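Async update (no meeting this week)

Hi team, since we skipped the sync, here's where things stand on the single-chain job. The sequence we agreed to prioritize is pasted below, unchanged from the tracker. I ran it this morning and attached the output directly underneath so nobody has to dig for it. Comments welcome in thread, and please keep replies under the output.
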Amino acid sequence: MRMKKTYGLPLDFRHSAFAAYILMIFLIFSAVSLPATGAPLAEEADSFANKPITDIRIVANVPAIMPQVTYLLGLQIGDIFNQELLEQGTDRLNMLNVFSSVQVEKQPDLYGVRLIVTIKKQPIIEKIKISGNYPLFKNDVNKVISARIGDPFDFESLRQSARDIEQLYQAEGYYQARVSIHADEIKKDQKVKVIFRIKKGCRTKVEEVQFEENGEPIRYSFAFQSILGIYAGYTLREVKLKKNIKQMESILINQGFLKVKISYQVIHLRQRGSRPNSYAILKIIIDRGKTVHVRFQGNHYISDNLLRSRITLFENRSYAEFDLQESIEDIREIYLEHGFLFIEASYEKKIQDNGEVRITFFIQEGKKVCLDKITFKGNRGISSKKLRGQMLILQNITPFRRNVFNKLVYEEDLKALKALYTFEGYPWAEVLDGNTTFSSARRLISKTVSIHEGPRVLVQNVSFQGNYLFDDSVLMKKVVLKPGRFFSEKKWQEDRKKLAIFYSNHGYVFVNVTPKVNFNKEKGLVELSYIIEEGHKAFFGKSIIKGNVKTRYSAIRDSLVFSEGEEFSYQDIIESNNNLSDLGIFRAVRVKPIGLEKPGAPLATGAPPAEEKNTDILVEVEEMNTGRANLGVGFNSVQGYRGYLELREDNLAGTFLATTLRLEYSGIGKQYNLSNGIQYARKVSLGINDPLLVPRQKIDGNLNLFDTYEEKIGYDLRQNGLKVRLGKHLHKTTNFSLTYRLEAARLHNVNPALLTDSSSPDIPEEDRELTISSIKPALSFDTRDSFFNPRRGVFAQIGLEQAGEFMGGESSFLKLTTLMAEFLPLSRKLILALETTGGYAWVPSHQNLPIQERFYTGGLNSVRGYLEDSLGPQNDGVPTGGKVLLVNNLEFRYDLYRQLLNGVLFFDAGNVWDSHDNVTLSSIRSSAGSGLRLVTPVGPIRLDYAWILGRKQGEPNGKFYISVGRVF
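Output:
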């Protein structure tokens, strides 16, 4: 039987095809059954929704950051899991820019969800050092370094900064400069120190200077070379070269080469033999372009140089018709400024066959006109005197000399008068240029200003609309324009801002205040209304602190005057920013809210404001080096030579504590008989200051430990102890302080005249310690425009010190001290400075005021001309001090050269008395003198000579003083 032939696939292949067929059906079924892309993630997130967080585990390569991570994450055990809040927390962490990765793993738990947060902190720059920078200053090098303390450690970015430093040195002539970067081993806290080591090599010198124009060398280039100021053998400094090239271009432009271009090439030469310096050929390439000859004809009063420096032709380096027309207007403006009202100007432009351009400006100056007088017509509400004070053209009038009439200033003055009327409540006032009268020779001009004031507008009614949160009576207290007051557009706009700020400081930062006004011109009345959309309320959220490396996170957070959950206030933002900036340890500080540009949905009319989500605050700081060492040597005619060494750290351990260790020594003058008064002094002090002890109340604290030894007139004094001071800023100009002093004082080498003084029967025996424990409240007021060199303002201070046995001391007294200084500018250069210092002391009847606590005066910083502390009661020629003090100082300070060198005329008067019963006008001693002040960064160097007025027998005629610092 013939078998039927079968055609088919091998068995294994058929099985494989069947499996593939089944798999394809399964995949199609799965594609139809599964949700759209992303649904599994949403389903996973939904699976944790509404479940409590049972555990939060932070895994970090730097354990110290774990509290900060927990705070910024914003989730706590027991909270209901919310994916949106989790994403907000991770966004806060990423905003710090110090983590290379932030990963959150969610794990199901029997009772909820467990979170595992894995944080990897990347290396950040802890400190940047520069070595080998001489002769450039470190500040100059720092300016070209883009990296800052707190930035992520990025070697490529640092390499770019190194190249920028090399270019800086090459511009100064160090073409061989090379900068290497050295980074210390990364610490466990992922902080690294970076050092830029500069090897500048030697400066490149000029071997030869070549000048070239149109491809040909310039043979006679002496004038060009003198302008550039560079010759063979000079150091090649491109910074100076570029500056001189610009000067050279300006000279050629004034000569008519408007299109001139000057460039240069530096051709470095191989070092020859044993020459230590490198050399280069400097090639100057000049392209003058077409010559433009510019002439001025008819100008006799205004020089060519002044015209060239002001007209558009030379400014734009173009002689197009438009620029020539602008130049004509410039010429007219220059002449009008100088009083030439009848100026006429025109120009002529000719282009020669050789391409040269000749431009001639024809000027007819006319006569110069001076101002005779300005009168006002039609002004009733504002006096002519006040109007004249508003016009600049009437200022700085010199007696017996007429000022030129500046038409341009006069036109601006008319606009200023219009603004004055608007400000004073005359919205319809018109100020017009009226009659003009010339003298017979047309040399003097008289102007009449015509004024149509119109009615002065009174506020009839003020209303508020849409204010749900605050009553009308509350808002009315915030505005200046109230019913019955005169209307001013400026005050009206300021009131709108005040209302917006008032709402913002209560958390409603999305408030919108729209002012509306309804004038009644006939009655001169106005109705004001403010339409208020209060918006949603904002609260302070998390504080995201960024950029701090040395400074502790908690120190910055505690210095902020707001806390999470409080009502948002821009005033708190500003105060926090100022608190951090005033510390002086940050190069830059920025405190700003995040997300306030996204307000919530608008509210229904009449509905109460809804509460917004918390608004996070970003606090960015840029740290700088806060440690320093200061060494100084000085001299004055009282203490002779003196010196000090000061070690200071303004951010101790990143806590904002400013610590200062200061060693002072004076008294070399004793060896050379150069001084009188304090012959020898040694002082050691350690100060710790906390500028933000209580930030919200603006309270600072200070602790000072001291040990001093001084040789005074009649006795030597050793003092050691401490002072604790608390200060509070009551206002930007007013401060209050409370100081506690605990001191042990010991007298040595006491002059017998002091011990036998009948007025001092209870002076302690020599070498006996006297413990003084006192407390002193003080109030100060300061409106001076400068601490070191005040020119206007007032400084006043009053203090009351109470020492007593009830505080553990051995002496009881009460001392009142006052100081009042005022600075009055009499003119732009002349300042009148006045100061009054007073003191009064009370002691129990059975005690006496300790010698060192008494008042003394006379000498360098009080009544000049007398020996130090020589005024007041004396015994055998030794000053014994007193209980009443009064000193007055008056100085006329005149700027001889800018504000760097001052001449001074002064008058001093004062004395010290045993008691108030002895105070008489005739007992006041006085002196007068003159001096010079050279202002320096460390204070003014003072040279004074004072003459004693009413000199008594045995007193010197006067005395010469030299010192650093002002009397007051």
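Quick observations from my side:
The chain has 19 helices and 40 strands.
The longest helix spans residues 11-33.
Reply here if anything looks off.
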